[in-house]
Protein 1
Amino acid sequence: VYHAEKGSISPGGIGKHIDREPGAKHTYRHADPERIHLNENITVNEHCDKALHLAISDRIAEGYCAKNKAGKLKLIRKDAVKYTTHILTGSNEQMKKIEADPDLRKTWISKNLEFVKNEYGEKNIVRFSVHRDEKTMHIHAITVPITEDGRLSAKELLGDRLAMSQRQDRYAEQMKSFGLNRGQKATGIKHESAREYYSRIQEAQETISKN
């Protein structure tokens, strides 16, 4: 299963969820506290070790160079999509088999990282985390949609529905060697629907804002 969405809320809650930040357990209430130590945050570049909101803003400051007609740096629209979220996983049964074999697990993680790098650019990855403390092992990746020519365009990098379907086909091809086959198209995430996941993070973000 591979699912991607444009970031539509503040990255604060998502960052707390992915990083399992102490004191923010309401953002990862499905996690088993006795397995949190098994999670792995992979440093793809220097931004991956920063708080997520800083990682996103720093990557934009580093890579954005779009110019206006006057030749000056073009202002970024307030409603511009500044990050995209990605969840990569598979069926619970098969993921349990992969997780139980240290070498196979390491290879699976490496293949997923290679996929995200190829699709979105290594420099654009600001989070790549493996979660093993929930029902099914999965990966959270966060990317900043900076194009090769320095524009900020989630629309271009994610593409339309057809482009996403083709990307999911490419992902499925990468996962065949692990006994993972492409599920039915447009069915969403199996261990938790995308809508449920982002609704939960939105709820957590609102709770943080009130405190």
Protein 2
Amino acid sequence: MPDGLGLAALLASFALYLGVLGASGTVLATRVFRLQNTRNIALWFAALGGLAALLGFSIKGAELTGSVSGLYDTEMLGLLWGTPVGTALRLCLFGLSTLIIGHFLGHVGAWISLVGSLIAISSFTQIGHIAGLENLLLQLALLVHLFAVAFWIGILIPLKRAASNPKNYEDAATLGHRFGKVATFTVPLLIVLGVMMGYQLIGSWSGVFTTSYGQVLLIKIAFVALLLGLAALNKRRYVPQLKAGDPSSAQGLVRSISLEWLVIVSVLALTAFLTTNVTLPA
């Protein structure tokens, strides 16, 4: 079990994933599907991500000093600023700031926000287990993988909001159908890249079952499988029924999206646990 600082690092990492991926995914989904009234969603996620990034940076200082005073030890944090941890913080904050600014610049701002989301997500390639391998191909795979995850997260709130309002059932059906078509390509990519990165990190298939990292990864995979099942249920049942004019399917779609959120939160929490409290197999 993690100690106090380990738990704090875990919570900060979880909030960072949720904030950055939520903000970036909202921007991406808004751009792809021409969504309306998503600015506040992106801004709230971006604020969460920025605060979590700052907190995580300070916690890293405390972990290095072995004392809570490291949270505000300017000398230690100054040294940390020049490491990849500092680079990740700068990229994250600059990306999220660019994402936020873009929301106030009209049509061209949508592209600026998209660039900001790319910069913010790229911060994850600077730290963590993938960064430790110093493999450019794996870092690129991680970047694409995270963008696919962000896109999935970004569609959930707008889709649930539309399916919760009888006046927007038609929009919800159309949006769900369009997302299902995109997911046909993105989900296999998500799975392939995830498997490839997991294998490279563990080093062998047997390690999946015999190491702590592999065992936590298996739990994460089980949650991802559940998430895929819910997505398939939406694509095959609720969205087609709603598109055919069955209003009762909207409630099923809303419940399914709520469950997707719970599963996504679990997956992000497990990812944070893997990156902060579990070491790679030797």
Protein 3
Amino acid sequence: RFSPLRPLRFMFKRLFDILVSGTILLLLSPLLLVVIVILKLTGEHEAFYFQERVGFLGKRIKVTKFVTMVKDAPNLGTGDITLRNDPRVLPAGKLLRKTKLNEVPQFWDVFVGTMSLVGWRPLMPQGFADYPQSVQTEIVKVKPGLTGIGSLVFRDEEAIISGAAAEGRDLRACYREDIMPYKGALEVWYVAHQGLWTDLKIMVATAV
């Protein structure tokens, strides 16, 4: 259902994304430079990794991340599913992933407009396909986000996957059956309740 206020909300959200992401990138630039130098001197000797994911309206986007895993990790071991203490994670990458610093470069993606500060988390095509079709159709109506309600509730989903691995379960089935229906329901909830107040509460919860 069309609302005459929808374009205004979209414009305000975009302006908010630009101001916040630009400010954070500027403030964190000294720390980011240190991380870049460390990554260049260790591991794969590369700082950034550009991963293809599903974005707004189902289009493919490139998500910017700090390098935390060995090259060609999606084609090794458990593929796009990451376990706790995953052997593909580099030494420096463990700290970056634990503190979520590996996600900070995505503020650039927010700044240029491929993502928003708050939304559903963009997934690799194989992971996105694990959502029920009804969820896929609904969530692509908004931009994916740096954080979101699904990311908060399932912040430690690696532990769930690792538990399934310890039990000898099929990891893809665990991801598809134990995580995605519930995570998808949360993302659909966000689409229905999106707004400045909702975004602010999710951002504060993320910071906490």
Protein 4
Amino acid sequence: GHQCRQRHEDGIVYGTARTFNGTQYFRRNSEAALQTGNIDFALAAWVYVADTANRSIAGKFNYSTNNREFALIHEATLAQFVVSADGSGTLSRAQLSLPTQNAWHFYVAWHDATANKIYLQIDNGTPAETAHSTGVFVGASPFDIGYLFGVYSWSGRIGPVTFWKNRTLSADDRTALWNGGAGLAYSAFTS
């Protein structure tokens, strides 16, 4: 699959995390490799949760231009994986309580096109799931890390972020990437 990632040392996700000040972000313009539709895909990220403000981790989502695709966000006390089927209408959300603050956490979000569901898992815990049978909008929003739709920006640290297209991650895959909380270098991920 296509991967957007930050480099890190084997098994250590924290050493090369980027610090965002609320105005900084990484952006890649939209392209076919980052567009989804009604297919399997997964998004994983290591984040250092520092507060309960509305924050964006990663995704392709823009409210102002009706280019809402998918996003991994925090809204107050909830961590959410949000998707839109039409770019502007009703959103589907898989959500979990925000994990402990001032600590690193591993987020995995995915769309299973066969099961017609979206999922969100934190730290190898029990995934939240929500029915979603209409696929994900294929739009022109850029893929952003640390910023989405001009409203939510990240203040704090984000470690490696990876996107897989045309696949989900099995429970064994997610456990391997979690690696007991130490993380796993994507170069060592052989699944």
